[in-house]
Every structure is written in C-alpha cells, then in structure tokens.
Amino acid sequence: MNAIREPALGHLRWPTAGGSRVPYGVFTDPAIYELEQQRLFRGDAWSFVALEAEIPASGDYKSTFVGDSPVVVSRAEDGSIHAYVNRCAHRGAAICRELRGNVQNHTCVYHQWAYDLKGNLIGVPFRRGLNGQGGMPADFDMKKHGLQKLRVESYGGLVFATFSESVEPLPDYLGPMPCKAIDRIMNRPITVLGDQRQYVAGNWKLYAENTRDPYHASLLHLFHCTFGLYRSSQKGVSVMDAKRRHSMLTAMRGTDEGMVDGYQDTRTYNTDFTLADPSVLAGRPEFDDGVTLVILAVFPNLVVQQIANTLAVRQIIPRGVDKFELVWTQFGYVDDDAQMQAIRNKQGNLIGPAGLISMEDGEAVEIVHRSIIRDQDQTSYIAMGGEQAKDAEHLVTEGSIIGFWEYYREAMGWAA
Amino acid sequence: MLDLSALTPVDLHYQVGKLLSDYVECIDDDRLEEWPDLFVEDCLYQVIARENADRGLPTSAMYCDSRGMLRDRVVALRHANIYAKHYYRHVLSNVNVKGVQDGEVLVQSNYVVLQTLVEGDTKVFNAGKYLDRIVATPDGLRFKRKVVVFDTYRIPNLLVTPL
Ligand code: FES
Ligand SMILES: [Fe+2]
Questions:
Q1: Is the pLDDT of residue A293 over 90?
Q2: pLDDT for B43-90, tens place per residue?
Q3: How many residue contacts between A and B have a Cβ separation below 8 Å?
Q4: How far apart are alpha carbons A263 and A255 in whole angstroms?
Q5: A359, B83 Cβ separation under 8 angstroms
Q6: Chain B nearest-CA residue for A352
Q7: How far is Cα A192 from Cα A184, in angstroms, rounded to an integer?
Q8: What is chain A's alpha carbon radius of gyration, rounded to the nearest angstrom?
Q9: CB A74 within 8 A of CB A96
Q10: Could you tell me which residue, A415 or A379, shows the higher pLDDT?
Q11: More confident residue, A78 or A232
C-alpha cells in the first residue's frame, strides 16, 4: 500500500446539494475508502465492537475491527472494558490470534512482550540482557510502549470504541431515538446464541443504504411479504436522529389485513407459495408496543434488529473498497424459557446469510457493486417519499438514505 | 425393510455410502425436490458454523426439524429467494460408519462443496463434516438427523442451496 495520501474529493461530482444523487465513484474509489478510514472510522464516530455479554468475565477478550483496523476488546480484573489495536508495540505482530478467549495477559508470540488486560506493557524478555550483554537501552520506559488504546464506552450492554479524542460521549453520539430503541431491546440481561459471518463483494455503504431502506423490503424479500412479516402497507415509521446519521425503521405485523391491494402489480404478493410446515413463523408477542420489526442502523457500522422473535446485532466490517464482512451476533434473554429458546432457534431460519428473508440483501449489494465500476460520475436516484431527508410515518420512503448521505458528505468534509 | 443388525459391516458401509451418494447427487444435479425424500418425516437438518458448535451455542444457518421444513426451503429457493444461479459439486470423503445405536447408524464424513457461478470459475465454497444418524425405513435408509458442521464460517454472500 502507498502511504496515506489526501485524496482529492473534487474529482467526483455530486449534482445536487443534498443526498438524493450519489456519484457511483464513492463506492469504488480506493482513495475515498482511505479517507473514510481516517475521517469516519478513525474520526469522530463510535464504532460498535462487542456485546458486553460476549466478554462477561475478567480476561475474556474478543478480536474484532474498527473500520479495517484490527482491535482487541477485553475485560480487565476490575470489570472495566478496554479496546486496543491488535498490534504489538515492538515490531507490530498481532498479539491476539484467536477470535475470542480468556487470558491473564496478552503475550506476543514473536518476542514475548507481555501486556496486561488494559493494554499496558508489563514484561519484556531480556530487558536487561543476558550476562551483562544486550538488553534494552537504559532509558527504556515500559509505560511508553503499551498497546495503542481506544476510548471505550458502552450503552445498554453494547460496547463501542473510538480512536477519536474529540467525539462526544456515547449517549450524546447516539442521541435519544437510538438510545430509546436500544433500551427497549436491551431491557434485561441477554445471552449470546452465536455468530454468523457473511462476506459480501460490495462496498460497505451499499449495506448502509440497504438497512435504511424500508421501500425495498417488501419488494425484494418475497418471503417477508408473503407471510406478512413485513409489508410496506403495514403500520410503521422511518425515523432518524437529529444529525440524520442513525436511522430506524419499524413495522407492526397484522396491521394491513385487507390492505394488500397495492401489491397487485408486483411479483411480491401474488403468489400461491405456502408453507408445508409453518412452525418457522410461530412466535410470541414480546414487546408491549406491538412492534414486530425493528432495524436500527447506527452510524457507521452497527445494525440492531428485532425481526419477529429474532434479536441480533450486525457489525459491518469494511474489508477494502469492494468487500465487507457482516457479523451477525444473535442473542436472547437470560430468562427465556425453553419454548422461547425453541422459537428463537427456529426463527433463526429467517435471518443471517442463509435467512429466508435476509439472504437477498447481500445479493442486492453485489448486483449494484458489479454494475457501477465504470462511469463514476453517474449517480443513483433516491427520491421515494419526496426526495428529502425526512422522517415518515409510513414505509414508502427513502428519506433515511438521503439523510445518511447528507451526513456522510458532511463527515467526509465534502462540501456541497 | 433392512435389518440393520443383520448386515455385515461391509454391507452396512455400502448401504450408507449409497445414501450419502444419492444425497449429494440430488443436490449437485439440481434435483432438489427429491432431497427431502431422503429424510424421515420427523427429522432434524441443521447447518451450523463450527465456531458455534464448538462453543455449544445453538445459532444455526439452517435449522429444520421436519421434512416439511425441508420442502419449504426448496420451495422458497425456487419461488421466493433472489440469488445468483450457481452449481454445487460435493466431494465427500472419509465416510466412517461408527456403529449402530438404538436402531440408528452413526456416521461421520467430510465434505467439500465447490461452487460454480455463471462467470464460470469454480471456487471452494464450503468445507466441513456431516454428523449423520441414519435409520432403516420401508423405502430404504433415510436420514433421521443430519448435522452439517461447517469449518468455512465466513459465507460468501449467501447460502441458499443446502449443503
Ligand atoms: S513483535 Fe511482539 S514482541 Fe516482538
Ligand atoms: Fe432487505
């Protein structure tokens, strides 16, 4: 790789001031990707890195990423949670080579420099040499050679980390709408049910668009629509935080019976597709508000979902301009009874990379990405719902996508 | 109906091998409608990442506890889901018939699934092991339980065709 250079943003043209026309170059230009790593993932943003429930005990750790920087999240003896770059302060080896585990301290395998659970350097072999020969310089100070630490905060059991010294505290960064949505789902102790990893050959922002897009969900996902898990005719909202960087869409099952006429012209609803075993759809009402679907997209890399009785966080890890990894961590509540466990297990068929209602999102990203590699100045057209970054009390809108792009332009320093 | 306990180990191995071959062929030759017929009605078909299986966690890519659910997967794949046309080619090895327990044959084997997309190149899509429990029925041997534990835990784009 070349050294980080300052890319010229000017070479791509946004034909309008807002976020309703997006030049395809933002999805394919490696210089833009580099700048995103600096200004978004290492800029003034909090990235989701773990659920507290993934590292419940002292010494538990998880290796993950902030943007594409490898990071370790670990719990120290005093219960506090820390995050540091997964790179030895000596010569740069990865100090943590497993996805997860439990250790007393992290010892680099290369020359065995050892770090405590907070990322401080605590041991260097041959520090004073052997038999009076070799050894580190006399002014070597262990305190100056710890791992590169990130700021860490958690909210509702969700752990976030940032490289930024200046980003506001996490609850302020999230804002009232996302906090309320997180409070609702993370209302009591959770238990992790497992992970699924999906590798998508497309730019990460295509997925950011996808999760802010209530319009596609009933048209692309036939399974969703046929069984009423989600239809654009249902009661629902599409809302954003004050800065329009986070967004949430919700829907309520069973609120559109007799109202499905709008689907007559689509492939989506006119189908005689029925289930031999409908038990996959059997569930239980879990929340008093009647909301059966929540997709909360937190800028830049998190989606919190409730789809029927499936609960999950999805972490978006960019892996270059044309690839990202999506890690689905599914969870339930500690107090789930056996029936609820069985429901979540079976409804798991709906989500993840093999999900009957979610597999198409990866496909949608890939068919876009493959088609936009040329003609970088040509743009998408995002206008459903009035071509404005507006909240809506319905699901036939692209307002949150426009909001995302307006915030993105701002955060990237991309003036109108 | 086959009497499992009356079969010699060699015969049993042959019969199990035949069922596994039929299974792989009906997927690879795109006769997916026949695929559920290789299971008993009251079956379990589970596809689970090794990282979850090793931790004793339940999250599965697919979890079907009836033949009806297997049929639904096929119907959804034919009529509901959107995905790129692709072919699978299973390579199966190390078929280890471990024994018969309570009328069920316990079998472990390894598989590699190669995937060919319309672009024409072939890639290793997934590798793992099958943990099977097989029973005798009037129609021949059938899967009572098939647990697919996949080592390749990062799924390229999506998984729609059964492994
Ligand atoms: S690189 Fe880690 S101890 Fe040398
Ligand atoms: Fe979708």
A1: yes
A2: 999 999 999 999 999 999 999 999 999 999 999 999 999 999 999 999
A3: 125
A4: 15
A5: yes
A6: B61
A7: 17
A8: 23
A9: no
A10: A379
A11: A78
Question: What mean pLDDT comes out for the span A209-213?
Answer: 97
CA dihedral over B35, B25, A349, A295, signed as positive or negative = negative
Residues of A with Cβ-Cβ distance to B75 under 8 angstroms:
273, 275-276
Residue of A nearest to B58 (CA): A193
Q: Compute how many other C-beta atoms are within 10 angstroms of the C-beta atom of residue A205.
A: 23
| Start-end of H helices in chain B | 9-28, 50-55, 67-79
Asked whether the predicted pLDDT for residue A271 surpasses 70, the reply is no
Contact between A241 and A225 (Cβ < 8 Å) = no
Out of B47, B69, B159, the one facing A280 most closely (by C-beta) is B69
Predicted pLDDT of residue A4: 42
Mean pLDDT computed over every residue of chain A:
94
Tokens of B51: 């990282």
Q: Which of A226, A275, A348 sits opposite B60 (nearest CB)?
A: A348
Residue A209 is which amino acid?
E
* Per-residue tokens: A392: 């809506």
Q: Chain A closest CA to B97's CA: distance in Å?
A: 29
> Which two three-digit tokens encode residue A270?
């006119």
CA distance A80 to A370: 44
